[in-house]
Predict the 3D structure of the following.
Amino acid sequence: MVSALFLHLWAAAHKIAQMYAREYHDFPAGSGLGKGCKTLLIVTLAAFVIQIFGDLFSGGGFTRLFGLSLDGMQRLYAWQLCTYMFLHSRFFIFHVIFNMIGLYVFGRDVEEMIGTGRFVMLYLLCGFLGGLFWLIAAPSNATCIGASGAVFGLLGTYAAFFPDRRITLLLFFVLPVTLTARTLAIGFGIVSLLSVMSGSSGGVAHMAHLAGGVAGYIYGWRTKKTKGFLFGTEWSRWNPFRHDWMGGVRAGMRRRNVRLMDPDPGYRPERGEVDEILEKVNTRGMASLTRWERQVLDRASKNGVK
């Protein structure tokens, strides 16, 4: 029964997200769903199913234990700052579906840009900061659940990377409205800010949305500006779903030159760097390459190697 419910939720979210990406975007989809994005989708939907049955058997105790609340923080339930983003409202199924659509739509291209390891860290960090700032103005008896803070972080990063990409939304599922990614992010940010200032939450964690979105935008903007921000460009090779991820972590810590975006037209990569990328292609296929790695191969074919 649990597995059947999970499969129905996964199929519904995946179908809606594919339809949205195919019919309502006016830019081509990325090379596919990355491992980080796919895993976060599966884990979140699985956690939602577990939450439903956990609350049925505990009278809502499961959500109180793993959702974020001031009472939980006073009891030193520090895990709530992470677990809350994997829970959703049991009484409003679109809560989880909308968040998973956002993860699917914005997460694909963000993961493609920065790599699986940094993508997962960015998602969790935006969710963590969203929860942390929500606690500042949270009512004493409130519980915060949902991935919205993390998803707004992806929207912010997406808007920083692709500010002029046009996105078409179906307002009220009927009226198509086309906006640039930057306009969409600013619009959501203004709504969240006004809601926070007015104190009318309506059961929505607007502070988490605002904090997550701002954190994501700052990350994307700084990464583009400095060609590497926080985790370091070589962290794109760190994949927590591979057995040899510790080697990628050590390599990222050793690397001094931080790079993310496209290399200069005259860039000549080192032979060892090219050999490493070709080995990755041989073992995992072209789809596993980050944008930087594809550009390195392109520069090697045009300019040669050192």
The CA atoms of residues 86 and 123 lie 12 Å apart. The radius of gyration is 20 Å. The first strand starts at residue 166 and ends at 171. The first helix runs from residue 2 to 23.
